């Protein structure tokens, strides 16, 4: 499987950084039919198969995505969900992220609109003193988690590229995800290796995550369809959020479906981006 072709498939990074993300957002959702004899293990080394999973998404072009991040903190389990579309060839996505109630039990906060771009995260309805009609821009290469956790919804292509760092993996069995036959694999990826093997735009974010997480090793479960496309991937990160001494266990789940759907995403212009101070939350 030609792995080097991916380096020319995703556009280069977006320079600069504005703002500071003040909230953690957390994760959710998948399964696959094999290409070997029914009921048996599929042909091919699982590690090689998973190294090529991100390339299969680029071949598909686009998809719908459902994301979920979940974390237990202060005796409370917090879950943040997102839903939208992603264009794997341009490296652009749009998600509507739903935040949970605040600790006081107030009404659910307004959804945040997130635009995912090579090297950047744009957020609207961010709050914290940001005008409602303005976007906040964050350089994902400056985030200690590479935006695998901070934005509340892991970038679907970034989640796929974590698998480029797969060190060990095994075939678990055949099952279904949302009615689609899939192959279930379980393994461990190394973020440092993923950063070396990733597309140019994701090397910085994955490299930052390798340094910023409590450990660069990421256990995962992934479900591939018969075209080798990810239908569901669940990562388990060990994250240090700066507010407590012990690492926080974060589970990020991404469900992909509706391959080939239109995914029109436009990055905000300079005048639409907020350049002022963002209040602490």
Show the helix and strand layout:
Layout: H1 46-51, H2 53-60, E1 62-73, E2 76-87, E3 92-98, E4 112-117, E5 120-124, E6 135-139, H3 156-162, E7 166-177, E8 180-190, H4 191-197, H5 200-212, E9 217-224, E10 230-239, E11 248-257
Antiparallel strand pairs: 1-2, 1-11, 2-3, 3-4, 4-5, 5-6, 7-8, 8-9, 9-10, 10-11
Helix pairs in contact: 4-5
Structure description:
- The protein has helices spanning 46-51, 53-60, 156-162, 191-197, 200-212; strands spanning 62-73, 76-87, 92-98, 112-117, 120-124, 135-139, 166-177, 180-190, 217-224, 230-239, 248-257.
- It has 281 residues and is of the alpha+beta class.
- It has a single domain, classed as outer membrane lipoprotein receptor (LolB), chain A (Clam).
- Helix 4 (191-197) runs antiparallel to helix 5.
Q: Give the helices and strands as they follow along the chain.
A: HHEEEEEEHEEHHEEE
Based on Cα principal axes, name the global outline: globular
Highest CATH level, the class: Mainly Beta
Major β-sheet profile: 11 strands, antiparallel
Instruction: Calculate the mean pLDDT score and round it.
Output: 81
Helix content: 10-25%
| Total domains | 1
Low-pLDDT regions: 1-38
Ends apart, CA distance between termini: 46 Å
Per the CATH scheme, the topology name is outer membrane lipoprotein receptor (LolB), chain A
Major sheet: arrangement of strands? 6-5-4-3-2-1-11-10-9-8-7
């Amino acid at each position: 499987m030609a792995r080097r072709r991916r380096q020319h498939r995703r556009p280069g990074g977006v320079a600069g950084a504005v703002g500071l993300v003040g909230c953690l957002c957390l994760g959710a959702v998948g399964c696959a039919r094999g290409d070997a004899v029914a009921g048996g293990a599929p042909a091919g080394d699982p590690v090689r198969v998973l190294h090529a999973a991100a390339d299969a998404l680029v071949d598909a072009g686009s998809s719908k995505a459902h994301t979920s991040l979940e974390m237990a903190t202060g005796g409370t389990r917090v879950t943040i969900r997102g839903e939208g579309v992603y264009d794997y060839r341009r490296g652009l996505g749009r998600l509507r992220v739903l935040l949970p109630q605040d600790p006081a039990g107030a009404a659910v906060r307004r959804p945040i609109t997130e635009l995912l771009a090579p090297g950047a995260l744009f957020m609207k309805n961010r709050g914290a003193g940001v005008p409602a009609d303005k976007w906040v821009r964050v350089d994902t290469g400056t985030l200690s988690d590479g935006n695998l956790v901070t934005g509340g919804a892991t970038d679907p292509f970034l989640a796929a590229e974590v698998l480029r760092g797969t060190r060990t993996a095994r075939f678990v069995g055949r099952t279904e995800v949302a009615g689609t036959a899939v192959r279930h694999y379980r393994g461990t990826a190394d973020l440092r290796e993923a950063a070396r093997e990733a597309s140019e735009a994701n090397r910085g974010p994955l490299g930052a995550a390798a340094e910023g997480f409590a450990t660069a090793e990421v256990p995962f479960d992934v479900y591939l369809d018969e075209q080798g496309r990810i239908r569901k991937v669940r990562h388990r990160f060990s994250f240090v959020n700066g507010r407590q001494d012990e690492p926080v266990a974060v589970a990020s789940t991404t469900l992909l479906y509706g391959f080939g759907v239109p995914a029109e995403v436009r990055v905000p212009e300079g005048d639409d981006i907020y350049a002022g101070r963002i209040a602490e939350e």
